[in-house]
Amino acid sequence: AATGLDRSSLMVAGNRARQAQAQGGRVNANALALNDRGRVEASSVTLAGNNASNVRSQGREATVAGMAWGKGIGQANANAVQVLGQLRAASIQLAGNLAANVRADEGLASANSFVQGDGTAEAMQLSLAGNSASGAQARDGRVALTNSVQVDGGLQGSSVQLASNQGGSDAGGARDASANSLRVRQGARVRGTQVTLAANKGTARQGTVNSADISGSLQGSSITILGNQGQADSGGVVNSVVGRGGFSASQVTVLGNQGTATGGSANSVRNDGSIATASITILGNQASVQGGGRVNTLDNTGALRRTQVLIAGNTGSAQGGGTVN
Predict the structure, then answer these.
(1) Rounded CA gap, 277 and 176, in Å?
(2) Which helix (H) or strand (E) holds 53?
(3) How many helices, marked H, and strands, marked E, lie in the chain?
């Protein structure tokens, strides 16, 4: 679709796709891609009960779904939604989908996931629940998403829920693999938005698992990481919140999670900007880290002002150095 959805309803349900491959460009299986900055306004999109396996893009193209993401990019989408323009008062639901062996040799591999382009999402209700995926892979440091949300344009007055998903991602040795996670790209703001990641199970190599990675600013929002189980290898992050643009007037809660990591972070909050008028709670978590890292910890390199911090009832261990509780 090139123009988008306006006061409409779209459902993709109960479909099965096998051996979907593209030798040049991108491939979509049980997926929706709104091209050319397509918009979604006052509409609902549902992907439910779909099954996709062996989905692979091997080619190269200068654009992805109508927008240039860089040269030499080919994308593989399985049970996924991609919107490159504005979202307003939209409802997006991905539920009970299965994906296996989703691979992109030259670009983004997306399994049971949602990707937003440059346009801001306002008053959006987004839910990923009960999805399962295995073998999502991207080569040469490209992005691999499994049961995850990637936002390039920002969130305002929205709700994002990821619950009871299972899966793993591999970005070929880079830190762009995400499983059951929210990724907000640099410069994108999150304002007045509620984010909940609950009861997910996942693994990732050098990436994020059951976590929120906010490269832009977090303002007047809440993030809850609750009852998840995960493993992150080679410097990854599990059951955690990572910020790089500052938190203000926001609540971050990491509660009742279990995780392991190698040289990374587990059940922690890590921020490179300032934290002001905020509440940080890390409570009742269990984790272990090998090769140095952070366990059940708040690690803030910027200023901390008018903020309440509670770290209590956690159990953790770090081998090879690190910070615990």
Answers:
(1) 30
(2) strand 51-57
(3) 0, 49
Which residue's entry shows tokens 């988008």? Answer: 4
Contact between residue 256 and residue 226 where contact means Cβ atoms under 8 Å apart: yes
Nearest CA to 191 out of 162, 224, 157 is that of 157
On whether the CB atoms of residues 76 and 108 are closer than 8 A, the answer is yes
Q: Which of 180, 182, 242, 172 is nearest to 205 (CA)?
A: 172
Is 221 within 8 Å of 248 (Cβ atoms)? no
| pLDDT tens-place string over residues 135-174 | 788 776 678 899 999 998 899 999 999 999 999 877 665 5
CA distances (Å), origin 127, targets 27, 198, 236, 256: 24, 12, 24, 21
Alpha helix ranges (H) inside 65-192: none
CB 66 within 8 A of CB 28: no
**Position 64 confidence tier, pLDDT thresholds 50, 70, 90:** very low
Give dist(CA 202, CA 6) in Å, integer: 35
pTM (predicted TM-score): 0.93
- Nearest partner of 146 among 174, 115, 118, judged by Cα: 115
Distance from C-alpha of 208 to C-alpha of 70, rounded to nearest angstrom: 23
Tokens for 164, please give them. 């009871």
Residue 183 sits at the vertex; the CA angle it makes with 145 and 42, to the nearest 5 degrees, is 90
